[in-house]
Amino acid sequence: MDIFVQQLINGLTLGSIYGLIAIGYTMVFGIIGMVNFAHGDVFMVSAFIALICFLLVTTVFGITSIFLALAIVLVVAMFFTSLTNWAIERVAYRPLRGSFRLAPMISAIGMSILLSNFVQVAQGPRNKPVPPMVTDVIVLMENDGYQVTLAWKQIIIMVLTAVLLGGFWYLVQKTSLGRAQRAVEQDRKMAALLGINVDHTISLTFVIGAALAAVAGVMYLMYYGVANFADGFVPGVKAFTAAVLGGIGSLPGAVLGGLLIGLIEVFWSAYFSIEYKDVAAFSILAITLIFLPQGLLGRPEVEKV
Amino acid sequence: MSDIIPAARDSASAMLSVRGVKTFYGNIMALKGVDVDVHKGEIVTLIGSNGAGKSTLMMTIFGQPRAREGAILFEGRDITKMPTHEIAQLKIAQSPEGRRIFPRMTVFENLQMGASIDGFAHFDGDLERVFAMFPRLKERINQRGGTLSGGEQQMLAIGRALMSRPRLLMLDEPSLGLAPLIVRQIFDAIRELNRTEGLTVFLVEQNAFHALKLAHRGYVMVNGVVTMSGEGRELLERPEVRAAYLEGGRH
């Protein structure tokens, strides 16, 4: 029971990070039907932006309040990551719009390699550590020396994710920006006929996706304390898996898929073998797709016309 | 082409002026040099059989696809190469072929989409007006567009176009899929909007009888070319028009 609760907490934390990244995959797929293979690396870049910013804020500017520092890091990382993703869309994807379907995806793979190699060259191939940021933990239960703990950083991750998702849901469902975004997703030509600037809306999708990935990047850095140029790949693939599991194109699906992948991974590690945790996550994906090809919350392809 | 009578007024004063427009799908020429004028305050209809290029003309006016040759002017301004959303922002609204309702948005959201060009300044009043015209939409206000019947979607497409307070309303086969009674309602509503508010309407129809009765002027399109034009009632009397579009088809 103790282990179960502890793993549940760990799984939800990891799942929150996956969910935040997964939204970027699912939104981009929804609006231009493309798997943005560079998204995981955008997430990795955001972790590095956060790392640099954190060190600057704490050492050069001497800010000692960790929460103030984190808040600044969050804003800065969101801004620069969004800018990066906006530029990537502008340079690598937009010129290929209207070309054959695979072209932007190949371009995305190129951007993925470019980002990770650039960071490798600029920041070095080794893990870059940051000083531990939030170290306090709350002991929830104690049994025979086994403590169930809830770390403050886990609370921060889960609460921030929940708040962000609430705000994001509001943006998509209730504002005219979100309505334009959904309109372009559902019928690009008709949206243009109603005066919606399709290119701007697609750019905006990339900006929002990157901002959420940046939050995930900051949280990842805070949680694990290190960043590495290769960190885009595995979390990126996991988050993509989460998006597919939840039903690609579905925003609640991305969050649900992220939480599930996080939980599967953590529970498998705890009860079976940690070496096979990725195998477990991807196997469940494969099984889900065999029996539920549209994912858990995805819509079936048939639509009344 | 010999049968074209000169437009009642010169083309320079036209609100919408289509001049020698040629549109291609790949290498296939769908519009082979089309001239059409719509003057302010007019109802103009374009009739023709399936595949004549009527809907292609409607979409070409919005630059989807772009005209390869010729020019399209709106209030004297060349819009041939203007981006589609900027054309829409000139307050030209279209209820397009196939209705193109946003399937995963509610009826209300679809109408909101229509109103976004107008900046929601008159939203509540315009909404009431659309609901008065199509009470069925009010009953379905929170239903998703994709779950509506074809006729309801048609009403929604027209309502959405009206929500933008268009200066030029373009309707592509508004009668398609609708019961005759509702077709009559829609046509009455168009006539009413034209008479009371001076709304300019460009109407594409296969239902030639109703369309020509409603319109001030009409054009007949065959295979991407305008073959006849004239006043609506006058076209109705012509034997060629009757033979091709009306016989056996007085809905």
TrEMBL record, chain A:
Keyword Transport assigned: yes
Domain of life (superkingdom): Bacteria
Signal sequence, renumbered to the chain: none
CDD domains for this protein: TM_PBP1_LivH_like
TM segment ranges: 12-35, 42-61, 67-88, 100-119, 151-172, 193-223, 243-267, 279-297
Name of a matching Pfam family: BPD_transp_2
Keywords linked to the UniProt accession: Amino-acid transport, Cell inner membrane, Cell membrane, Membrane, Transmembrane, Transmembrane helix, Transport
Subcellular location(s) per record: Cell membrane
Membrane topology: Multi-pass membrane protein
Protein family according to the UniProt entry: Belongs to the binding-protein-dependent transport system permease family. LivHM subfamily.
Protein name: Branched-chain amino acid ABC transporter permease LivH
Organism: Ancylobacter crimeensis
Phylogenetic lineage: Bacteria, Pseudomonadati, Pseudomonadota, Alphaproteobacteria, Hyphomicrobiales
